[in-house]
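Sample entry (85 residues):
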Amino acid sequence: AYTAPGKPWQNGAIESFNSRFRDECLDREWFANRAEARIIIEQWRNHYNEHRPHSAISYRTPAEMRQRALSPCGALAADAIEAVA
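Predicted structure, serialized as tokens:
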């Protein structure tokens, strides 16, 4: 999607991601070369997409949500079990 210059609110999800990427990865690392940058960025991407809790999914990790979705009973049963516990 095209975002007009000077209007970041037109694409809030990407702007939010870019901010997190800069804060959590780029501003914390010093890359000696492109190969090292690729490795570190891939490690961060894996953490972000698999192990980092996300507010949009009730502070669960994407890996947890995938496991819940693939479980035999699905997420509804898992939610019912959590409600009883």
